[in-house]
């Protein structure tokens, strides 16, 4: 078999609903690597949110911030940032309607509200530490991504006002804020161009709205059984639920195990 490059989302894909790595998933990743395939991560998370997972799985290539920051074998090969002028307008507007924000750079993340209940609930759902408080951080550095905290019914106003940004919901109370053309698919395209990889040898596993472009872009898109119908519709294959050895089953389904 040709050498494959396999991209895995994290939450709901590599990690189960308890944010734990199933034994069968870890064993499957090790087998992929032993068989000579390349394994990479494609996530909306910041790099400091999954350092331990990378170390546990011995993965040094990844796409994070939903495609805005791409690392190939430990080297940053592509990055994009939110336009500072537009973001300043965006921050002022969000603050005027009492919607808090988290600012995310490659080094750290901060919030403009110390302990807003939407931030607490959303970040705790990922089992991550809360951000530090620095309401001016967006003026001090380049941001690869931001998190906006609002209800689904409040989201459309941002799409209308800020067409330079893309808004992708990941939690009932929060959306990722990206450059308009940002996506995991874009990150993968930069990754494979740099590495000289043929698209026909690329596989991707995902389960959420930020995986839509990725699953339809790669030759072998695999949606998790726990993915919503909208996501499954973009994939070539559908595997079992993450809690039911979904990664192991999916890799067997596509012929990699």
From TrEMBL:
Protein name: Phosphatase
Pfam families xref list: Hydrolase_3
Cellular component terms per the entry's GO annotation: cytosol
PROSITE patterns documented for this protein: COF_2
NCBIfam families attached to this UniProt entry: Cof-subfamily, HAD-SF-IIB
MF (Gene Ontology): magnesium ion binding; phosphatase activity
Organism placement in taxonomy: Bacteria, Bacillati, Bacillota, Bacilli, Bacillales
């Amino acid at each position: 078999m040709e050498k494959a490059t396999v991209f895995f989302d994290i939450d709901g894909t590599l990690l189960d609903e308890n944010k734990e790595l199933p034994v069968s998933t870890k064993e499957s990743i090790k087998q992929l690597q032993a068989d000579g395939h390349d394994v990479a991560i494609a996530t909306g998370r910041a790099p400091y949110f999954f350092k331990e997972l990378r170390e546990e799985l011995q993965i040094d290539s990844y796409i994070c911030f939903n495609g805005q920051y791409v690392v190939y074998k430990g080297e940053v090969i592509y990055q994009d940032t939110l336009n500072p002028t537009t973001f300043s307008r965006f921050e002022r507007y969000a603050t005027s309607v009492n919607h808090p924000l988290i600012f995310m750079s490659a080094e750290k993340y901060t919030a403009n509200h110390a302990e807003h209940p939407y931030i607490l609930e959303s970040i705790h759902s990922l089992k991550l530490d809360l951000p530090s408080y620095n309401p001016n951080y967006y003026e001090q550095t380049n941001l690869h991504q931001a998190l906006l905290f609002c209800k689904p019914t409040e989201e459309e106003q941002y799409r209308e006002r800020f067409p330079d940004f893309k808004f992708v919901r990941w939690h009932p109370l929060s959306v990722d804020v990206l450059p308009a053309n940002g996506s995991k698919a874009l990150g993968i395209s930069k990754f494979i161009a740099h590495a000289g990889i043929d698209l026909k040898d690329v596989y991707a596993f995902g389960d959420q709205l930020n995986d839509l472009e990725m699953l339809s872009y790669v030759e072998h898109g695999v949606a998790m059984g726990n993915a919503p119908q909208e996501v499954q519709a973009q994939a070539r294959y559908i595997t079992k639920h993450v809690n039911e050895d979904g990664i192991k089953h999916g890799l067997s389904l596509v012929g990699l195990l």
